[in-house]
Amino acid sequence: MEIIDGKTLATDIRGNLKLEVQELKYKGIIPNLAVILVGEDKPSQIYVKNKSKACLEIGIKYEEFLLDRNIKMEQLLSLIDTLNEREDIHGILLQSPMPKHLNSDEAFERISPKKDVDGFNPVNVGKLCLKQDGFVSCTPAGIMKMFEKYNISLEGKNAVVLGRSNIVGKPMSLCLLNKDSTVTICHSKTQNLSEITKNADIIVVALGKPKFLTKDMIKEGAVVIDVGINRIENGIIGDVDFESVKEIASYITPVPGGVGPMTIAMLMQNVVKAAKNTLENSKQTCTILAK
Q: Which of these is catalytic: 116, 118, 239, 241?
């Protein structure tokens, strides 16, 4: 059994991104991330703080927009429109969850696909489905980096994704499918779940249920990726019963220190990518004008 060290891998990625940001600044581009936070959800505040720290470390400019939880939808969309139009902002992140009176689907769709560094805009989701270049949701992108780093083969493997959210489950299944895995998505209505998971070579658990996946639900040598973040009195635990599952898994991610750091690293990578795209587009424009 090998523990996948997401924290160390994320540190390496952030170090490389720091060099890329320095190169972009030399070329006159300062990567800039705008983060919108509606309300005072405590976990969201923690996530936003961690993202701002990562930006500061790498050299990405960071602008935070804190909105009252009672803000109207029209006001939120107006802010997004303003940020879309600002040429100095390369990425826009709308922190979830939002108050229930706001339409999150409409808000994510309003963010320009070119600045959608979370990969939630339907255009980027469609590009992922078609295997085209775009922004991929950060958590699945981070997990794919883990597979790559640890040389975990995906081709032809039976992969099971527990959870069908738009943020993790669905894009994760597309990422695996694009690497030629045979993918099964399970959810609350799935019957005979253990029979499915016992046949899986790779299991990604994103349910939000503490210690849901147990040793008796997997086969010997399975790769287990735990996306869960469940807050308890003593700290944070995942969706996997780590102590029992690690006895028979070939690879497993810990919580904390696994998928979490990689999610933020992939967000930073997407912001840098967006800034690079801006630079490339400006070069193309100059070439056209020169002709």
A: 118
